[in-house]
Amino acid sequence: MPTFRYKAYTNTGSSTSGSVEADSERLALLQIKGKGLLPREITEEGSNSARAGSFRLRRGVPADELSLFTRRLATLVASSVPLFEAMGSLCEQEESGLLRQALVRVKDRISEGASLSRSLAGEPDIFGESYVSMVSAGEAGGALDAVLERLADFLEEQEQVRSKVTSALSYPILMVLVGGGVMLFLLTVVIPRIVSIFEDSKAALPLITVLLIKVSHFLQGYWWVLAIILFSSLPLYRKAMKSDELRVKRDAILLRLPLAGAMLQRLILSRFARVLGLLLSSGVPIMKALEITGEVVVNRVYRIYLRGVMEEVAQGGSLSASLKKSHLFPPLLVHLTGVGEKSGNLDEMLVKAGIAYEREFSARLTRLMGLMEPLLVLAMGLAVGIVVLAVLLPIFELNQLIK
């Protein structure tokens, strides 16, 4: 049986470490949490790299379906409908699918006396730890309906951001695919038939025409090389990304990309601030909220730094002072966090910061897409123009020789 070494926080906020034996990392995490500890890092003994615990927010159903279910449940709870009846009603409304099957199992657990949060925790592929923690805090604070409403709002807003990014990228991706297809057709079908005339003439060809002919011959004779590279790149990339070190390097490179890096940072900051603010406003303790937020923020550069922030906060440091030490968190977020800590409304300040960064991301995305569309059209026109020029130049030279 594998042995897993862990680092965790105790109920008093101090750091501790140890090891457990379990068949899988998930079972090891359950053992650690069963001891009343808050896992921070877990590593399988004998592995080459440390791995963060699997707290990531995973959903096996679309976000819009989950948000609709959450809002319906909030409405029924606010109307004082018993939880078992509410879940039974929601099961009947759902069409057959993963969510309905999960809700049936949740209803069965509730009928056996389990709380809603414990029942939802049994479906980790649909209800992530952040979702379950907020529901648990809502149950403990007697404000389950309000927490569910906030959860539904958050899921809908995240889905809107995701849809906005998807729709914004669809046009450039389509343009690239169409442009690449047109160029491939020209180079492999049209150009070989035209340039055969020039090759037979034995006349000196312009450099641009020679290069075009070589590219065309390469694509015709060695297309299989490109196909192998294309189809093997994705599996190789996935295999490489199993290394935490390579993932951190990739995420660091993404943050340094021109234009896109700044936009990505705004999106990360928006999610960090909104998730943390939402968890705190729902009554989740700050250490647990920071742990969940660190896993929701998928960029590993931020995730690694947030582990250090957790240690400082556990030792009595302030959140704003910890965030201020890194360039990853801009002054606006640090300032609003400090104001929130002093005034006692940290959750509200974080949500405001998240909304501000989300708006900034949307504005930058709109400007970038407005700039990218004409640039893509220009690039396609330039590529086609080069091909046309490479074909016409020899024709003009042949006409001059004939005259």
Describe this structure in words.
The chain has three domains: 3-44; 63-127, Receptor-associated Protein (Up-down Bundle); 144-403, Up-down Bundle (Receptor-associated Protein), CATH 1.20.81.30. It is 74% helix and 5% strand. The chain has 16 helices and three strands. The protein has helices at residues 25-34, 63-78, 83-93, 98-111, 116-121, 129-141, 144-201, 207-221, 223-240, 244-256, 260-281, 286-296, 300-314, 319-324, 331-343, 346-402, and strands spanning 3-9, 15-21, 38-44. The protein has a three-stranded antiparallel sheet with strand order 2-1-3, sandwiched between helices. Strand 1 (3-9) and strand 2 (15-21) form a beta hairpin. Helix 2 runs antiparallel to helix 7 (144-201), helix 6 (129-141) packs antiparallel against helix 7 (144-201) and helix 15 (331-343) runs antiparallel to helix 16.
